[in-house]
Amino acid sequence: MTSSAPGHSSCAHPGRIRRPAEGFTLIELVVVISIIGAVLTLVGI
User: What does pTM read for this prediction?
Assistant: First the structure.
């Protein structure tokens, strides 16, 4: 798995965090809320 680490690291590179946190956070928040809502609905809580 150590061999796969370098390739996977490219995906979560610090460069991605450089993007506008304000806009990204808003979009991420909506996505997370939607996912949580869908999961809760599926679980039946």
Answer: 0.43
Sign of CA dihedral 34, 39, 42, 45: negative
Q: Angle at Cα 34 formed by Cα 27 and Cα 12, nearest 5°? A: 50
Q: Give phi and psi for 44, each to the nearest 5.
A: 95, 30
Residue 24 has pLDDT above 80, yes or no: no
Cα angle, residue 36 at apex, residues 12 and 18 outer, rounded to 5°: 25
Task: Name the CA radius of gyration of the chain, rounded.
Answer: 16
